[in-house]
Amino acid sequence: MNVPTKIAGRLPLLLHLPFNYRLHLPPSGAVRLATLPTPPRGRRPGPCLSLVAGMAQGPEKNLGGAVKVPAVRPATEAHAEEAIEAIKGGKVIAVPTDTLYGFACDACSSDAVSRIYEIKGRKHTSPLAICVGDVSDIPRYAVTDHLPHGLLDALLPGPVTVILKRGDSSILEKSLNPGLDSIGVRVPDSDFIRVICRGSGSALALTSANLSGQPSSVSINDFEDLWESCANVYDGGILPSGRAGSTIVDLTELGKYRILRIGRLVKEDIECSIHLSKQRWRVGAVPASFMALHGRESGLGSGKAMDFVRISEFQDKGIVNLCIKSVRRKTRTAMVGNVALGSQHPIRIQTITTTDTKDVAATVMRIADMGADIVRITVQGKKEADACFEIKNSLVQKNYNIPLVADIHFAPSVALRVAECFEKIRVNPGNFADRWAQFEKFEYTEDDHQKELEHIEEVFSPLVEKCKKYGRAMRIGTNHGSLSDCIMSYYGDSPRGMVESAFEFARICRKLDYHNSVFSMKASNPVVMVQAYRLLVAEMYVQGWDYPLHLGVTEAGEGEDGRMKSAIGIGTLLQDGLGDTIRVSLTEPPDEEIDPCRRLANLGMRAAELQKGVGEEVDYRGVLHRFRSHSPETFYRSLAAKLVIGMPFKDLATVDSILLRELPPVDDAEARLALKRLIDVSMGVITPLEEQFTKPLPNAMVLVNLKELSSGAFKLLPEGTRLVVSVRGDEPYGELEILKKTDATMLLHNLPITEDKFSRVHAARRLFEYLQENALDFPVIHHLEFPNGTHRDDLFLGAGTNAGALLVDGLGDGVLLEAPDQDFEFLRNTSFNLLQGCRMRNTDNCHNGLHCEWTGRDGGCRFWAVIKRGIAMEQATDALIQLIKRSRPMGGSSHRRVESFKDFVVKLQSIELLVPEIQSMVLRVPPVLLRVCCYGSADDAMALD
Fold first, then answer.
1. What DSSP letter does each residue of 835-899 carry, written as one string?
2. Family per UniProt (predicted)?
3. Which range marks the domain in which residue 937 is found?
4. How is the beta sheet containing 348-352 ordered, strand by strand?
5. pLDDT tens-digit series, residues 864-896
6. Angle of helix 901-911 versus helix 876-887 axis, rounded to 10
7. Domain assignment present for 332
């Protein structure tokens, strides 16, 4: 690049000059940047000019003696502090937003506000909008009490300006919009400007960077004649808005809204968000993407974290709810070496090595063969830490740059050592500063708790400072099975305790201005894991934090069981837009984890792109044709029925109903006898309406869709015929009105899993909302149809993600899997694994992974210390209850103990802590049993008792 000598002599260094800019010398002698033609396809212009700090001439030195030119900086977080200082100093800066370039200043400074009017040549009577960092900041400046809860969260952050009444106690400068009792408020979907807002501690007065009446600016070159009026100019490249500003919506009147100007967000988007914010959601439902939850102070201890996530509180407590699509939760970007984590990047795949860390060659070979985005290595002691340097050097020599994560337990000094070579450190808050809970101390006063926090800060701070120094990332990863004594004393081993455990460490990071963090809330129980992550995100929103999440179910198991549990836990959260990196934790070789990881990540990314008990049914079309010529007993066994003298009998592990697309001919006596025997033992047989008309089977349940239901054709069936109604969930509510007049045995929710316009999970939530609003209590079965050729892993993960995301919240009463080319046993086992993983119906021994911090295979359960030996059988129950009373306080101070097991259960119900094992026995009766009681015989009901 040729630069005139006299210009080059005045600039000590030019950095990051992008391909589409060139320097030229205007007549005034000032440095200008001119834009070349459209950049090559696929490339985006970067920062136009960066000058090294500490220039001899200073950033605003007159170059050539004519015009004072401000410093031009890239709009990155690295330069945010400089912008914050300029704002605090009463200066005006130029910044990119999510729509256009704008001029910004402190909205509470009269001089700065006047300066903006002067720069634009604008009348002081013309209104200016303000910009805040978070939606939660808006009530400081404007009146929001009259708005439907969740409305602002549905609209913002984004390209919207909302007009609100100015608050009586508003601290805004009176020169801002004089004579008006309203104010326009923005929360741009731009990390840079939101960081500036938060850091300045004030709202920014914000207006487009152009002279009044002139075209808006989508690049810094569009307003280069106004640079000299700014303290700094921040370049974010060419903005893609097409000169469309924000959409302006007037929300000043109760119950009304007016769209004053259409901008980047169209009318339909605004109306959709406003409509959704008014909806109330059924208890147990899950929002597709939420940013806030109400935190209840239970009174049981000093903690201020969230209790159980109650979706019923959404309408009352200001929860964001976007039911028609999954939207990835917006996060900051965390850098793990050369890999970026966050909502602006693909979901990253992680795994762990199982070779001895000291066996450097094997570890390097394992990493080289994995193909994951990130690899975690357990570092147990100083010898292993020393080996980490050899591992890293070996990888560099072989041209591998995959980021490595050091998994640290019990050893802060080891973490300090390995932070010098690995790109990321994972710390477990439960055992980093101390051992996990040993229950050596049961009572913690406020002073004890404060001393514990001071001890954690003393031990943890050096690692934070080291990570800052070397540019390392950190994962604060809580494990359900390894919480500290102090946390257990206050919260028990609950999701609430998991979140608070992580926040104790996170507050230290923030105090030291360290933000390259990732969080995880792992448990071997998918239900606990899902609740913990939701609480974490809810509390993060309350705090205004936007850190990325790593998802995983600890030691989910092996084979199909492990994959199903991971699909339920990870898949549920991905459907809600949560998660930026994942690991499927299997008790198998690490390379076996990568394929299910990729499949889940793909499901999560696809979900984000889409717009818009009673039993378990397994599809057995053709089963009678296949087996009737051999033996009915084979058919019964395929349904897991018990055989007594050739007759089928049900137990908890038996399929409750079967779906037959085609009934056997009327003259096929053997096949029809086999079906009759199933019906006689209360196993449902479901068949389409047309089949029942042509080949009637007495006492079979008839499957009808809404069109057939509306036609009334089913009325030709014998009186008392039980109906099963098939619904998609995306129908207009008017079409669902027929359900109010229908006495259906159950509903089948069967939106195709391959639907491209509407997410199956969100369609189901919409259906449950309708049923709840209209007091319709039909059992709902999740019917998943998989096309021919579906890989078994895709079927497993798809079932866990699509049905599990609903069942973990109590939405649904069973599952029906339909896959034409899969065998019966596989479908049955998959269905039972799904129900068991969601804690809906246990049919097999569930062995959670064993926790071993020393090997890195960290599951949610572990061997506890032996408390007492040689207990007589008749005394065992009382001894166990006493142990529970001692070691599992239900949150709160140590002075509030549970006096009896009955009180324990009552307390559990009243404060809604999530302890699924107890709930399965005491609080939640499997819906499968309820359904059997409904239409089974009296003997069946007695047997269940």
1. HHHTTS---S---PPBPBTTTTB--SB-PPPP------GGGHHHHHHHHHHHH---SS-TT----
2. Belongs to the SUA5 family.
3. 873-944
4. 517-522, 473-479, 424-427, 404-408, 374-378, 348-352, 581-582, 550-551
5. 456 677 777 778 777 777 776 665 443 333 333
6. 40
7. no
C-alpha span between 528 and 525 (Å, rounded)? 5
- What is the pLDDT averaged over residues 453-480? 93
Residues whose CB falls within 8 Å of the CB of residue 938, separated by 6 or more in sequence, listed in order:
none
Label residues 463-472 b or e (16+ Cβ within 10 Å = b).
Answer: bbebbbeeeb
Q: Which amino acid is present at 689?
A: L
Query: Residue 136: what residue type?
Result: S
- The answer to whether residues 792 and 883 belong to one domain is no
- The number of residues making up the chain comes to 945
Question: Which residue shows structure tokens 């969930």?
Answer: 729
Same domain, 819 and 932: no
**609: Cβ contacts below 8 Å, ≥ 6 apart:** none
Is residue 378 within a helix (H) or strand (E), and if so which, with residue range? strand 374-378
In whole angstroms, give the CA distance from residue 703 to residue 724.
Answer: 5
Q: Count of CB atoms within 10 A of residue 799's CB?
A: 26
Those residues whose C-beta lies under 8 Å from the C-beta of residue 432, and which sit 6 or more positions away, are: 408, 409, 410, 412, 415, 456, 459, 460, 505
Range 264-284 average pLDDT: 53
Q: CA 298 to CA 284: how far, in whole Å?
A: 20
C-alpha to C-alpha distance for 494 and 528, rounded to whole angstroms: 8
List C-alpha distances in Å: 544 to 17, 283, 533, 540. 35, 26, 16, 6
Are 832 and 880 part of one and the same domain?
no
Percent of the chain with pLDDT over 90: 20
Stretch 305-331: mean pLDDT, rounded? Answer: 46
Query: What's the domain count of the chain?
Result: 4
Unique residue bearing structure tokens 């892993």: 793
DSSP 639: T
pLDDT per position as a tens digit, 581-595? 999 888 777 778 888
Domain finish residue from 222, 249, 276: 249
Give the pLDDT band (50/70/90) at residue 197.
very high
DSSP symbol at 12: S
- Residue linked to tokens 């400068």: 173
Note the pTM of the prediction, 2 decimals.
Answer: 0.53
Given a cut of 50, is residue 660 above it in pLDDT?
yes
**CA within 13 Å, CB half, 153:** 28
Tell whether 95 is covered by a domain. yes
Indicate whether 261 belongs to any domain: no
